[in-house]
Write a structure and sequence with these properties.
It is a single chain. By secondary structure, this protein is mostly helical. The chain has one domain (2-171). Helix content is 70%, strand content 3%. The protein contains six helices and two strands; from the N terminus they run ααααααββ. Helix 1 runs antiparallel to helix 3 (51-74), helix 1 (2-25) runs antiparallel to helix 6 (139-169) and helix 3 (51-74) runs parallel beside helix 6. The relative contact order is 0.14.
Length: 195
């Protein structure tokens, strides 16, 4: 089973990458709160406005949600319809996760990446800036978050699929039996234990 350990190691590597990106980008939440507080104080106490600071809030929010989504998926924090999942055993959950990753997540992320790359490339070509005169000059960086989101989510989908296949590839354990012993119905005799 060296192939299985390599694929699990790949899934672990993807998990560590997304956790590192997610934890790093989580600090954007603090930035958004501090800058928003500053904008409110400036506007209502000092009577001043700042498009630059307002756009900073948008950039921070975008970075937080786009880059931490894969980490949130890894941690099970996305909304899930629990009709089938909540009462399911580990094998059924793995089957649902595998289907979700292969039939929904990965195709959608690949389509998003396909359409986002030319959009982002055009933005980088012209070094796109804000439409506002005093806005931030890095719209091309903001748009780069779209393919980054797609890549991180697709990678997490691959890790999810690997883990699901690992669970589905492991023989089910019968309660009360040694994990090395599996029940068998060889010769039509139910309950016969085979080692």
């Amino acid at each position: 089973m060296p192939q299985t350990s390599r694929t699990i190691a790949l899934a672990d590597c993807i998990d560590r990458l997304n956790a590192a990106v997610g934890r790093t980008v989580a600090w954007a939440c603090l930035l958004v709160v501090v800058v928003q507080f500053t904008v409110v104080v400036m506007r209502y106490v000092l009577g001043l406005g700042s498009i630059w600071l307002t756009e900073t809030i948008i950039y921070g929010h975008a970075a937080l949600f786009m880059l931490a989504s894969a980490w949130t998926l890894r941690e099970g924090g996305h909304v899930r319809v629990d009709i089938f999942y909540s009462d399911a055993g580990p094998r059924r959950r793995a089957l649902i996760d595998l289907g979700g990753a292969l039939l929904l997540l990965l195709p959608f992320m690949l389509v998003l990446l396909w359409f986002a790359l030319p959009y982002v490339a055009r933005s980088w070509t012209i070094m796109e800036t804000s439409r506002e005169t005093s806005g931030l000059p890095w719209v091309y960086l903001l748009k780069t978050l779209i393919p980054a989101f797609a890549v991180l989510m697709a990678l997490q989908g691959v890790a999810q699929a690997i883990r699901s296949l690992s669970v589905l590839g492991t023989p089910p354990v019968t309660p009360g039996l040694d994990p090395g012993v599996h029940s068998s119905s060889q010769d039509g005799l139910p309950g016969q234990v085979r080692q």
